[in-house]
Amino acid sequence: MTDTTPAVERSPILRVATDPTPTGRETAYETARSRADSVPVVRTGPTGITAYDPLVLATVDGRTAFHPGPDHEAIAEIVSALETGELRSDDAAAIVEHEPETRSLPVPETGPLAAGRRDVLGPCGWVNPLAPSDYDLVSPERDASGVQDIGLLGRGRGDAAADENVGETWAEIRETDGDPVVVVNANDTDGRQQIDRTLLESAPIAVLDGIATIAEHVGAADAVLYVNETETGLHRHLEAAIDAAEDHLSVVPQLVAGPDEYRAGAPTAALEALEGNDRIEPRIQPPSPAVHGLYGRPTAIHSVRTVLQVRRALQDGTPTDAGERDPGTRLFAVTGDVSAPATVELGDDDTLESALEAVDLEGTLKMAAVGDVFGGITRTLDVDATRSGLAGAGLGTEGVVELLNGDRCAVATAGERARFAATENSGRCVPGREGTKQLTELLRDVYRGSFDLAKIRELGRTMERTSNCRIGAHAPRPVTTAMDEFEPEFRAHADGRCPSGTCSDKL
Q1: Which of 2, 25, 35, 273 is least surrounded, with the fewest CB atoms within 10 Å of its CB?
Q2: Residues of the chain with CATH 3.40.50.11540
Q3: CA distance to 327, 444, 451, 496, per residue, from 448 (Å)
Q4: Confidence band (pLDDT; 50, 70, 90) for 358?
Q5: What is the number of alpha carbons within 13 Å of residue 337 lying toward its C-beta?
């Protein structure tokens, strides 16, 4: 049975920060519970730092000892000490002092948890995911009108207002006739992208709280939380969170599963899936979903990240206009050639280099793909973690920093992503259907001895300007940015040589 004891008010207490879904073997949480007598043991969600998973956190009177990945014997010793009111310090990665009733994970001064900041990530790994009393709920007292005019931008590929002012979307919904609905799009099959899953595992009630604030503001009585059909463990976890929180929320979302397809994560393709259509493809716009969305209703389609940025702005009390900057923070999944991936949160005064502090790179960094599978390729991470900084560097804003070491080939990396676009596009528009095929063929030609840089660039410009879907519009980005950074490698391949020594014909 899930322990719903409010974690933030207990001392001493033992938290186990890990995936909340059962694994079929004795977990660190189960070991700790079997050893504990008088000390409560709470399974929180993951912190986002997978190298620490499971992270055992022992707390006594405003002091917490951090024990990453302890074995069963170590867990027994940690519990035994805690039963007497003591913290084991000799094998702790850190001991942090904090306010006794803090609702945000105390952050060590060093180590991967110290990378960036923990605003939206604050509850992750610290609160009981299924206990409403562990959260400072905002929806019972206010709606999202407090962030209407601060210029907050949508976050992530699944958001219909990605990189656009969400307040303007809400205003359009409020001005449109019909019964509004809120859709939170958490269906992403890209294995690089773990941000929304981390948030849903660790702070699901915060997500539900944010959904209710947006629904109240746009006048929606209905909301949908759209997830991937294959993640059944996450479904059970979210259903438990909805059951736990429903008496505290004015609008309770319906949990709906969608196809395990990359294209089904696009905002308007998600609407097609939710309506039960056999063909999953993005809709032609206009009209926008804000005017004609789910079953023709005015619809706000947001990502989990956007919802929590809205909630965080309301928690801060009096958000201010950030002007040309990017209000709020941005979350990034740091993955690739690393020993363990991590989720980090960066502010508008941080650069992507800060994300390196959260992971151990395997080998020497050669390049990074920033965005998602169609992110831009860059040699440097000295880029502001804002929409304008990322876009100005030709990178994506979807929230992935994929670190690639010296064993990687820039041409093969670009080619694999072009081939993925040719396979996964919906086929609805010519640039997406035919352009991605042509792009793949032009990269195959490089291996055959022909590198037509001008032709590739012109094709990329055409696709970016005329594609109806984001796959077609973004597919050229990894190719053109890779050529910008590694043109000599492309020419070497045309001459029959891979400078990295890792590929022959990857396409």
Answers
A1: 25
A2: 144-315
A3: 47, 7, 9, 8
A4: very high
A5: 15
